[in-house]
Amino acid sequence: MNDGQAKELCLALMKADSEQEVIALLKEAGFWDNKDVWRFYGDYENNYNTIGNQQSRPDAALVEKVVNAVDATLLGTCLERGIDPEGPDAPQSIREAVAMFFDNIYKPDSPHAGQVKNWPDEKRTQTARWLTLSATGFGPTSGNPCFTISDRGEGQTPERMPDTFLSLTKSNKLRIPFVQGKFNMGGTGVFEFCGQHGLQLIVTRRNPAILNRTLAHPSDAQWGFTIVRRENAGAGPVRSSVYTYLAPLGVDQKPGQGGVIRFSADKMPIFPQGRDPYARESEWGTLVKLYEYAATGFRSNILMRDGLLSRMDLLLPDVALPVRLYECRKSYKGHQGSFENNLTGLGVRLEDDRGNNLEEGFPSSCPIRAMGEQMTATIYAFKKGKAESYRKHEGIIFTLNGQTHGHLTLDFFTRKAVGLSYLADSILVMVDCSRFTGRARELLFMNSRDRLRNGELKHEIERALEEMLKQHQGLRELKERRRREQTEAKLADSKPLEDILESLLKKSPTLANLFLKGRRASNPFKTVKVREEGEKPFVGKRFPTFFKLKGKDYGQELIRETPINMRSRIAFETDAENDYFGRATETGQFSLFLVKGENREPVTDYVGPNLQNGIGTLSVQLPPDCQVGHMLSFVAVVTDATRIDPFENRFAVKIKPAAPPSGSAGERRKPPDGEPGEDREVPMGIALPNIIPVYEKDWEAQTPRFDRFTALQIKNAGDDGAENADVKPIFDFYVNMDNVYLKTELKLGHRDPEVTRARFTYGLVLLGLALVQENEAAKTKPEVADAEGEEEENEGGEVNIERRVAEFTRAVAPVLLPMIESLGDLDDEPAPSIGGSGEPT
Q1: When you count CB atoms within 10 A of the terminal residue's CB, does the N or C end of the chain come out lower?
Q2: What is the pLDDT of residue 57?
Q3: Is residue 180 situated within a structural domain?
Q4: Does an H or E element contain 96, and which?
Q5: One domain for residues 246 and 140
Q6: Hey, is 793 helix, strand or coil?
């Protein structure tokens, strides 16, 4: 094959948008059916063991290709400047590399250096023109699209392709400090999602400025290209699939060990322009095309809210360089500007739009240490209905160097230990794990970088996150505000329902025994603190002028008594901004030490300080070897780049005997007094449970949304602030009064409409209470818990009781009223014997 034929085939493969076209081109060239011209990917015959164990989701796998393109761009610029990427002059972080190579003026000491969020839109677009992703091929209703990722990075020579793009075990970037992709496996994760044959095209040329004057090989200045394919397991001795790539050069001497096709060309059209995916030419760079990619969940226009751009923003929340996305499929219509946009990462998007999308006082950041590993959590609380633009089912995402490596779902916020069901649709937490040790990364993250590994470290991190969220004052206040907004207007209607329900329960000894035992909360709403008239909202300072123990003068020690079975919580006062400990630049640093004589030992398990409008809450896990009567001395240290001397606050914890379960007989909340001030509590008392009727006009406002088959949904409203795990959670009950089966019974007119509605309501509420009661009981009875092993659980191993109640009542709604009616008629005639002895018939 001469140069002209090779280039022609390469261009034809670039423009092909289906597997059928690619296979036809390769058959015509005599390659598809010739076993000798296909070489094992990674030169490893059993490569499916590695390639098949990659990302479980197509979007996570696709992100790895984008990460590789970003890395290639950084590496190419580094090499072009004559800097050894592994040498002492190389940047030591991704941010430093971006600042050194892409900022207009390199100011290494500037807090804004190397941050895309500080670039104007023109700068972002200019950089992203040479780092692109385009969609071609089928529209969402006719098939799967093709995705093409192009970069003008370092590029590779044809001879080096087997050791770079087509390798599995080579540690190409392991010792380079300013790149993300170091596992050398992520690039193969896309294969399983590329159509039926796993087809992928790679076209590349080395940057001429990087090549030495004397070429190592005559083809080093040429373009090289290949096709990767999947060969399915056959009926013979080969029992697993294998991935191979097209390498026909020299196969006469070494069948199956050839080189990739290469050709000479000054330029190749590897970049998109407008709606033409292959219009802009480049002298070097790399193009990777994925054919008929299984874009489950993002087949639509890649720039729309439910498209690929939003998914990649979440999976690359702090991407090092902007990437330009182009929607080139002809099935979409619109003006020219509506088909391209920049991918900048969720962090930049939120920074650009925070005023319109985030609640006041957010984002808020919090340092965390679990098993000695340092993290920083940033909490984003969205305004109602705004979160859907930024995430789907992800509640907490874990990032390393700006890339998401795993997540916990929204179910996390509905856990009893968190109690934020009313905010589950409005919270996103980012946990930056970039300071993890190497061993911790291996313990928490899979190599595929899309899943978390179960184990002790994950468990301890989850416990710390539960503590952080449950004790976050801003979230607690926001939750109560949302709950009041959703329920207060209907409380007058629901009060008679609650009174009747309580009467029903008391009349039945069985029901009373089930549901009226133990403590019953008198206030389903938390008491809330009110701002004094004329009091100004909190405005934090970028660098605090004070950071001290709450209620103490700076330098004065606090002594706190804490039961041995609980965490010790310490409050601080400061004028620092809420994101002081979590922002990207000029970050505040917090350290906690246990003082033993003259020595300070770092504390390995704590959460906080959790900053919210001038108050910081620190939660400390007591050491496992402490004993009742011990006095533990701590020092908390806060500093930042502007401080010569850090803030140091000392406190002591005296260990008390274990606290009994909260909610003992006779325990009551102290009523609020009439005194003014910021700690004055405003009473908002109603009886539990709240039974809230929901009508069709309000279906869309519910989370999850109601439909005509919805019967009952419950929401965990917290546990009235008590710390002990034995406190029963408070639930609100939302009954669908326009359920299709209820409306059918009302139309039949067998009973008075109010009686029918009451039967439907109380029947559902009793069923819901029974499920909640059984779920609580199961947690204390191992044999019951074991029997529930098949139930759908959230990440913490808890049954999601809210989902369980919704699904059960949805299923029972069609038979609920007919069942009540039929069973009530049994009094009118003798009931047949159901069980008993007698002769067989």
Answers
A1: C
A2: 84
A3: yes
A4: helix 94-102
A5: yes
A6: strand
Cβ–Cβ contacts within 10 Å for residue 120, how many?
A: 8
Are residue 749 and residue 631 in the same domain, yes or no?
A: no
Q: Report the Cα 189 to chain-centroid distance in Å.
A: 20
- The verdict on 34 and 158 lying in the same domain is yes
Give the residue numbers spanning the domain of 40. 3-347
Do 145 and 66 sit in the same domain of this protein?
yes
DSSP structural state of residue 331: T
Mean pLDDT by 10 residues, the chain (841 residues): 92 95 95 94 84 79 92 93 91 89 78 82 93 92 92 94 84 77 66 92 94 80 94 69 92 90 95 93 96 83 85 90 93 75 89 82 90 92 86 89 89 88 91 90 81 90 93 90 74 58 67 52 47 69 92 91 91 92 85 91 90 91 90 93 91 89 44 43 42 89 89 80 54 90 87 86 87 74 45 57 91 89 62 45 40
Number of domain units in the chain: 4
Distances from the Cα of 87 to the Cα of 174, 179, 368, angstroms: 13, 14, 33
CA distances from 332 to 14, 292, 295, 339, 429 (A): 21, 17, 17, 9, 34
pLDDT tens, residue by residue, 588-635? 999 999 998 889 999 989 998 989 889 999 999 999 888 999 999 999
CATH label of the domain that carries residue 586: 2.60.40.10
| pLDDT at residue 369, as a whole number | 92
Dist CA 28 CA 13 (whole Å): 12
Same domain flag for 80 and 208: yes
325, 347, 369 - which closes a domain: 347
Give the type of residue at 489.
A
The answer to whether residues 612 and 473 touch, using CB atoms and an 8 Å cutoff, is yes
Q: Are 444 and 452 in contact (CB under 8 A)?
A: yes
Tokens of 570: 């310490």
Nearest to 228 by CA among 194, 200, 186, 191: 200
* N residues, the chain: 841
Q: Please say which residue of 316, 347, 378 terminates a domain.
A: 347
CB contact set of 539 (below 8 Å; sequence gap of 6+):
none
Strands 131-137 and 323-327: parallel
User: Cβ of 512: how many Cβ atoms within 10 Å?
Assistant: 14
| Residue 841, domain member (yes or no) | no
Whether 678 is in a domain gets the answer no
Sign of CA dihedral 436, 438, 441, 443: negative
